Amino acid sequence: MRTGNRLVLALGKGIGFTSRFLKAGGGSTLPGRTARRMSPSFVPNMVKELPLGSVLVTGTNGKTTTATLLASILDRAGMTPVHNRTGANLLAGIASALIRESDLGGHLAGRMGLFEVDEAAFPAAVEETSPRLVVVNNLFRDQLDRYGELDTLASRMKEAVRTLDPQSVVVLNADDPLVASIGRDLPHEVIYYGIDTDRYGSESMQHAADSKHCAECGSRLTYEYYLFGHMGRYSCPSCGTSRPGSQVSAVELEMVELEGTRCTVKYPGGEVTLFIPLPGLYNVYNVLAAMSCALALGVDIETVKEGIEGFKAAFGRVERVEADGRNILMILAKNPAGFNEVIRTLTGGTGRKNVVLALNDNIADGRDVSWIWDVDFEMLRDRLGRVVCSGIRAADMALRVKYAELGEDSLTVEPNLEKALQEGLAMVEQGETLFVVPTYTAMLTLRGSMVKKGLVAPYWEG
């Protein structure tokens, strides 16, 4: 490695160490930002050191969980990944992961790059990492003040995919019509995954559904059933385009309340039954994406199953915490489609749920919070006990809760997140669960409060 890059690595490692030492963060962004500024070719040069190449995971919802699931599988398969596991999913986050996982000589501890990537950063990430495999989970409206129209985003992603090496593999969600359209006419191997049972389907589309029209001709799609937002079994009555067949598919599902899902998955060459230790239909999609990637990378099915069933959720994503004999279940929600699936998860089980809803409008959350009016809070009627609304936009969330008629008499507004968590815990008895649903930066603040109390480790140590 060139002397210049050694200096970049040394500086990056110093910045990361200082950040963690001063408890200013995990060094998940600033080291990489500095490295890329000093050496624009830093990431391309570093990924060349990975003997098994790189994998990119992108999409609106589920990137962190999918990438962490895949990391769990690859670790068991001996394909040790260099992974931006803190969720820093811009190019600076990828560079920071490479700095963290290398020595001063530029030798990487891992054998394969596994990088979660923001949808808008995906084309640049493809250019800099030259991945051997990419996966696109789904595309929904997210951060309305930051992203353009979804079809424009999908078009840019497809252009980036076309630049991949012909031997690269593309893994796509068959149930999302816009994502599936990325795979049409590609010269690469395309693997589709999806859910091939209507057990938890619906005849009506949610408000948060986005891709309602055919990507080929623009006509409105028709659906046999909907599963999650605009995902389901669809076809175009005008041009005949329809959901592609899925090579990796869930053919049987049984939701076990908030504990997880029993699932039977068909894949090329066989079938496997497993227990997903994460609740919600959206996590079934995350598992199918991770399975598709792992199988494409040559991992045997038993190792795949072990990696999934032994999985522990990433920080803030269905994270379970014990606090003085009470339980906290934290589930990140940052856009209408994801929030609706969290709500559908909360409606499972018996009894009323006590909930903290935390809404921030920092840059990482998106400044425009009008999206909360597209969330179907009405599904929670007669299912909630007490509700605490918190965060920078606590009043906005409280107004939405009031209009959903979720029980104004049991509603508390507490903008301070640490105090809101304390109030929430005071609402539940020993052995009971407090459900916390925050946006991204609210989740980081709440976890910071838990770190101070010794309830969890800092996210960069997870």
Can you walk through the features of this model?
By secondary structure, this protein is of the alpha/beta class. The chain has 2 domains: 54-85 and 114-309, UDP-N-acetylmuramoyl-L-alanine:D-glutamate ligase, CATH 3.40.1190.10; 317-461, Mur ligase, C-terminal domain (Protein-Tyrosine Phosphatase, Chain A). The chain is built from 14 helices and 17 strands. The chain has helices at 3-21, 30-38, 42-47, 63-76, 91-100, 122-129, 150-162, 177-182, 281-296, 301-309, 336-346, 394-403, 417-427, 440-452, and strands at 54-58, 81-83, 112-116, 133-136, 169-173, 189-195, 222-228, 231-235, 248-256, 260-267, 270-276, 317-323, 326-331, 353-358, 384-390, 411-413, 433-438. The strands form 3 sheets. A 9-stranded mixed β-sheet has the order 2-3-1-4-5-6-9-10-11, with helices on both faces. Helix 4 (63-76) crosses helix 9 (281-296) and helix 4 crosses helix 10 (301-309). The longest helix is centred in the first third of the chain and has 19 residues, at 3-21. The protein starts with a helix and ends in a 10-residue tail after the last helix. The mean pLDDT is 91.
Summarize the structure.
By secondary structure, this protein is an alpha/beta fold. The chain has two domains: 54-85 and 114-309, Mur-like, catalytic domain (UDP-N-acetylmuramoyl-L-alanine:D-glutamate ligase); 317-461, Mur ligase, C-terminal domain (Protein-Tyrosine Phosphatase, Chain A), CATH 3.90.190.20.
How is this fold's topology laid out?
Blueprint: H1 3-21, H2 30-38, H3 42-47, E1 54-58, H4 63-76, E2 81-83, H5 91-100, E3 112-116, H6 122-129, E4 133-136, H7 150-162, E5 169-173, H8 177-182, E6 189-195, E7 222-228, E8 231-235, E9 248-256, E10 260-267, E11 270-276, H9 281-296, H10 301-309, E12 317-323, E13 326-331, H11 336-346, E14 353-358, E15 384-390, H12 394-403, E16 411-413, H13 417-427, E17 433-438, H14 440-452
Helix pairs in contact: 1-2, 2-5, 4-9, 4-10, 6-7
